[in-house]
Amino acid sequence: MKMKLPADEYIKQVREASGRILWNDANFPESKQKTTEKSKYFRKVLKIYDKTFEAGEKGRRVGANILRIETIYKHQSVPLTELTDNSFLSKVGRIFYKDWSEKLCKRVVRYERCKDVPT
User: Fold this and answer.
1) Contact 11, 33 (CB under 8 A)
2) Tens of pLDDT along 53-97?
3) Would you say residue 98 has pLDDT above 50?
4) Are 26 and 43 in contact (CB under 8 A)?
5) What ranges in the chain are assigned the alpha helix state H?
6) Which of 17, 16, 20, 25 is nearest to 50 (CA)?
7) Is the distance from CB of 1 to CB of 85 less than 8 angstroms?
8) Spatial separation of the C-alpha atoms in residues 39 and 57, rounded to whole Å
9) Were 70 and a residue from 5, 44, 47, 101 both cysteine, which residue would form a disulfide, CB within 3.0 to 4.6 Å?
10) How far apart are CA 99 and CA 48, in angstroms?
11) Cα(63)–Cα(2) distance, rounded to whole angstroms?
12) Which are the contacts of 64, defined by CB distance < 8 A and separation ≥ 6?
């Protein structure tokens, strides 16, 4: 998502998603990437990061202030026919929205409004 402010401003505000705590990823500077707990026991990992920073580290250029939100499913095998089916894509889209919209979007929208208000 293209944002008004740098992505790390939003990442600092996010504490949890889908009832799970988001931790600063130890492999990145603070507020550049947060993920839910990762282990062999968790099949779904939620991740939010600064895409501009990540691309810059790899020598690529993307626009400024890009916030990336991902849901990663581990240990999941989906046949290609099911993966391209509209009903499967709709289901995955609904799950993604449910996981991320409850706290994250409300907090980001509120933060955007607060930054736009003159002091």
Assistant:
1) yes
2) 988 888 898 888 899 899 888 878 889 999 899 999 999 999 888
3) yes
4) no
5) 7-13, 51-57, 80-83, 86-100, 106-116
6) 25
7) no
8) 26
9) 47
10) 12
11) 8
12) 6, 52
Amino acid at 81: T
Q: Give bridge partners of residue 72 from the DSSP assignment.
A: 45
Structure tokens at 6: 């740098």
Q: Which residues contact 87 (CB under 8 A, 6 or more apart)?
A: none
Whole-prediction pTM: 0.72
pLDDT tens figures, 1-55: 788 888 888 888 888 888 888 999 888 889 899 988 888 888 888 999 999 898 8
**Domain spans of the chain?**
7-116
User: Which residue type sits at 50?
Assistant: D
